[in-house]
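Action item from last week, closing it out:
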Amino acid sequence: MELGLLYEIEAPKPWAGTHPWAQRVAERTAYREAIEQIVLADKKGFDTVWCVEHHFREGRSHMPCNEAVLAALSQITTNIKLGFGVSLMPHEFIHPARIAEKVATVDLLSNGRVQWGMGRSTPMEQIAFGVDRDMSKKKMLAAARTVTGMWGQDYYEEHSEFLDFPKRMVTPKPYQYPHPPAWMAASSHETAIMAGENGLGLLCFSILQPLSKLKPLVDAYREASARAKPVTEVSTNQVGIYTLVHCAESRDKFAQNRLWESMWWWYTSVAQFTIDWELAHLPPEQHAQAFPLLEKQAQGDFDITTFDEQDMVIVGTPEECLQKFLKYEEAGIDQVLCYTKFGYLPNEAVLKSIELLGDYVIPELKRHGAIRAAKSLAEGIGRTGHEQVPREAAQ
């Protein structure tokens, strides 16, 4: 199992000062620190950094142009893969030709390090861009076919339900042939199955639930992948799950790093955004059912450390984090996307977390993987040998 990173570039409120400088100063700091952290992760052996595309999300995510961030990273990193996590695909967001152009450009600049994720976004963004929500899944897959067609064909032309595009050469073509691995964001069984059936890697952004609930989703994806009819030229049968991750030399550092406070900020910001933009049409009692911890916390009936105890998040010393990562691997997960910068964690604490994960946890995960691979190979050779004995004896 690999460790990756996920970045939204948060700028948590309250911002110091007033408009026009409060937001600007917060964003300058957030971008500078994120770049510093990712450059360190590249040196420490992290597999992929996934950068989101979100619009209008004050506080939670200030990264609407992931192609600009990834292009910058392509010039100051060496090994880490550069993930579009994700490109918003329905046609109202952007013309498919623009997706083909920008993803291919970053792939060229990075000498073939791009991982291409696709998604549909949420009502907040869909409404602002005039996206037909009922058709958004169909449009996403149609746009994916268009993009890979533009990469694969010398000249591309399409006259379809969603696009009327004259014969043109789309430039540049990706560095990777036929194109970068393709993934899809999913947060439910339905969309996980959709990703599998279309031969797309699964990026699961469903968080803060026990592994026992994630395992059935992963299993459903694997079953769907077995009958896949790939929507792109590359089949990607892998699962990436993201969760909050913080590694420290000692748990005594948690209070100093404001870990639990940051974790609660993250949960409440997700809850409030979802209530405001995805569940606004539902009555308050259903809001409470969707996010029961809000009421429990208000009543003093919830302990934030429950997230840690149930392995919903990965926090602890290097050894504790390693044991938690191994549980994720046992659940069939190929990559954990470590959300290391959230809430009020200071930059120094995030850098230390990345350093500890890179120096101690990643090498151990590789060692465990090598042992399992050798054991599997030996068992396969053993089975083959036993099967050959009767045939040889019969001869």
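Closing note: The chain has one domain: 2-359.
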